[in-house]
Specification:
This is Glycosyl hydrolase family 18 (Putative chitinase). GO terms for molecular function: hydrolase activity, hydrolyzing O-glycosyl compounds. With 315 residues, the chain is of the alpha/beta class. The chain has 8 helices and 15 strands. It has one domain: TIM Barrel (Alpha-Beta Barrel). The strands form 3 sheets. Strands 1, 3, 4, 5, 6, 7, 10, 11, 12, 13 and 14 form an 11-stranded mixed beta sheet that branches. A two-stranded antiparallel sheet has the order 2-15. Helix 7 links the parallel strand 13 and strand 14. The radius of gyration is 19 Å and the shape is globular.
């Protein structure tokens, strides 16, 4: 089934005029990774609720990540969203060094560099904040690394970013790579497995999630290793539908078969997807495209089913 893209999803992959945060190790000194992380000031609350977790992607080119922290359960007071995802950083391709490069457009960079006001407040509420990674039409993606050395080099850029900005993990999204552009390789069976393996080793205890879509979705095992044994979560990528990600190794509690576009999926569909999620024993519900508009009534329909509570909005 073809991905139902919201127009905003194309923005993150299309911005080209901004600085590259991290280049591969062969690049010049001024382009190396940041200095060691500073104290982020995070004082995380323990927030638990029955009924699984809710995950929300935010298009930070046009909306504030902080909107995810404005919704709480009326009963119990827990946050509606357990994981907020910054959408999105990109994988660029350095044609001189033939290496994948982590790229943050100005809006993503603004969220990261202002972590004290954009990220830490959410973490202080008990939420986790991830950075989504996807292609940028340059031929580089998560599915065409041809050696473990290359996979490690990019994983190191990701782990350094997580450490420096005090993030809780990385989300992989295999879209917009345009494999083959700039004479880059086509997807192979080992790439994504090697990348996840390297990242898992570099940042133990952090979250790795997989947006179940693209070439990577059919390349989840290689060399005796399974992506499902190394990532924490995977969720359906087709908004308005119910489809269980086929990620061997992940239990039901860590899979999200329901996915909704907050701006496009009807209330009845969102409620139906929540009912299926609960009845079938899955533990993740995925939301996409949260804006500044108060949506607590819409969220309450799903929350009543998953958590037995309506949702309160605090601007």
């Amino acid at each position: 089934m073809k991905q139902q893209f919201h127009p905003l999803r194309r923005i993150a992959a299309g911005i080209s005029a901004a600085m590259t945060l991290f280049l591969a190790a062969a690049c010049t000194k001024e382009n190396n990774t940041p200095p060691p992380a500073k104290n982020t000031g995070v004082k995380t609350e323990t927030v638990t609720k029955a009924g699984g977790i809710s995950v929300c992607y935010v298009e930070v080119n046009s909306n504030s990540l902080l909107n995810t922290g404005k919704y709480t359960l009326t009963t119990g007071g827990q946050q509606l969203f357990d994981i907020a995802i910054i959408f999105a950083a990109n994988i660029n391709y350095n044609t001189a060094t033939h290496q994948a490069v982590l790229y943050n457009n100005p809006n993503v960079s603004a969220v990261l560099t202002n972590k004290a006001t954009q990220i830490v407040p959410l973490q202080n509420k008990g939420m986790k904040v991830l950075l989504s990674i996807l292609g940028n039409h340059q031929g580089a993606g998560i599915c065409n690394f041809t050696s473990r050395t290359a996979a490690h080099a990019f994983a190191k850029q990701l782990s350094d970013t997580v450490t420096y900005y005090g993030l809780d993990g990385i989300d992989f999204d295999d879209e917009y790579a345009d494999y083959g552009t700039n004479n880059t390789p086509q997807p192979n069976d080992s790439s994504f497995v090697m990348l996840v393996d390297e990242l898992h080793q570099l940042m133990p205890g952090k979250i790795i999630s997989f947006y179940y879509y693209g070439p990577a979705a059919s390349r989840l095992s290689w060399g005796g290793k399974r992506v499902g044994d190394m990532v924490n979560y995977s969720w359906n990528a087709i908004y308005g539908s119910y489809s269980v990600p086929n990620v061997a190794g992940l239990p039901k509690s860590n899979l999200g078969p329901a996915a909704v576009d907050i701006q496009a999926t009807s209330q009845s569909t969102a409620n139906s997807l929540a009912t299926q999620t609960k009845n079938n024993g899955y533990g993740v519900y995925l939301w996409y495209n949260l804006t500044s508009t108060d949506k607590h009534t819409y969220f309450s329909g799903v929350s009543n089913i998953l958590y037995g509570s309506t949702v309160k909005y605090t601007p």
